[in-house]
Amino acid sequence: MSVCLFVLEEVGTEAVKGLILNAANVQVNTKPFEKMDRLWYCEHVLEVRRDGMGVDSIGLSLTPVSASCCLKELNLKDCHLSYLPDEIGNLISLRTLDLAQNNLNTLPDGICNLTCLKRFRLDNNNVSHLPSGIGRLTSLESLNLERNSLCTLPDTIGMLSCLKELFVGNNKLSHLPSEIGDLDSLKILELQHNNGFHAFPESICKLIRLRGLNLYDCNLSHLPSGIGGLASLGSLNIAKNNFFTIPDSISNHPRLETIDLSNCAKLQSLPKLPTRTSVFAERCPSLESLPLEIDQLGWKGLSELQHGVSIVVPAGDEEVPIWFPYHDGRGPNVSFVVPPPPSVNQKILGWILRLLLWAPQQAPYQRPHELCIEEVICNKIKKEGLLDILFLFRVGPTDVHHVWLQYMPQGYGGLQLEGGDEVEIPIYANDALVKNWAIDLIYEADEIHKGTDTLYQVVSI
């Protein structure tokens, strides 16, 4: 049936459950909506023109009609809206509201009446503040406020007890209310590119269900000392900040899988890190010390690791011998023979590839240097597809060497090493030079070494 028949002529309106209005220049009579008592979905992309300008408000009247009781999803994405009527609060059954990619500056107080709302998208607008009554949206599970002009969040946001996802990246936040710690259900918090932050509230450490925290480019100089209380945290992005160090309590994260510290120009040291953590610390020119012992890098529990661990850090020539033994460069390939185990039936848990790299200086706009491992030659048999590692890194204005460490557990990419195996690993680099390298084989007994005992079996060629 033609949309115009039931929108313009009120034919068959009683049976309508879903409605997509994408016809341009159609003047819609709102009276037919009074008969749509089964309507649960409405997608409004109508492009009504006014004096040659785009739509500046909703073309449909949202006055109390019978449809309001059933409407559950309203999609007003990319409608050029600059105004939202207060009557939107009459859609009391609404579960999903999409207002993304419009020209909204404010939200009406009526929107706080949508107590059944679960998903709310407001990203890519120009909203500078939220209504104080936002805390009444107690059913809300996902709130996307990215790419607006928010300077703060209302204290009442802590009342959103069901909220699981909060996206507030690319705004103008200078602080967060302490009530943010009351979001007991929160699992994802993204605050990237809010580079006016002055401090971060200690209350955030109460978010025991938080799994992902993104603080990229937030101008932070320190993290709360109790950040170790985030017991469920699996991913932490604190890259491009002003940290000198990070709290020792970070070692208390039993589930932390990745931590990104890249572009932290002032970072000088790292504390002990959790067992299962992959560390990314590119372009940290002030980094003076690294926890290079196995237990500090999270490699003491190697039998539990199922993924690789990569880290690239700058290093002066005088520091390299202290970090690990290395050999004179012998071409682009790493070649070694796997020695027999130190004792009978001692298993190999994994191996660490260490490369000393040099690359020319780069401007920020230039393409990153590439380091690639695509294949392994084991006992003169090329095994393609076992490893497929592409690592990108940049070199800042200072010409320094970098050290790349890649841990690979036994069986990674299907490669099982045994004593006597002859192994060759071709290293491909576009304009970077591999100057020196070393292979560390990690055996089962290494996990119980203590004190100053040798932690690695270093292969000598």
TrEMBL record:
<dbReference type="InterPro" id="IPR001611">
    <property type="entry name" value="Leu-rich_rpt"/>
</dbReference>
<dbReference type="InterPro" id="IPR003591">
    <property type="entry name" value="Leu-rich_rpt_typical-subtyp"/>
</dbReference>
<dbReference type="GO" id="GO:0051707">
    <property type="term" value="P:response to other organism"/>
</dbReference>
<dbReference type="GO" id="GO:0006952">
    <property type="term" value="P:defense response"/>
</dbReference>
<dbReference type="InterPro" id="IPR050715">
    <property type="entry name" value="LRR-SigEffector_domain"/>
</dbReference>
<keyword id="KW-0677">Repeat</keyword>
<dbReference type="Pfam" id="PF23598">
    <property type="entry name" value="LRR_14"/>
</dbReference>
<dbReference type="InterPro" id="IPR055414">
    <property type="entry name" value="LRR_R13L4/SHOC2-like"/>
</dbReference>
<feature type="domain" description="Disease resistance R13L4/SHOC-2-like LRR">
    <location>
        <begin position="60"/>
        <end position="145"/>
    </location>
</feature>
<dbReference type="InterPro" id="IPR032675">
    <property type="entry name" value="LRR_dom_sf"/>
</dbReference>
<keyword id="KW-0433">Leucine-rich repeat</keyword>
<protein>
    <recommendedName>
        <fullName>Disease resistance R13L4/SHOC-2-like LRR domain-containing protein</fullName>
    </recommendedName>
</protein>
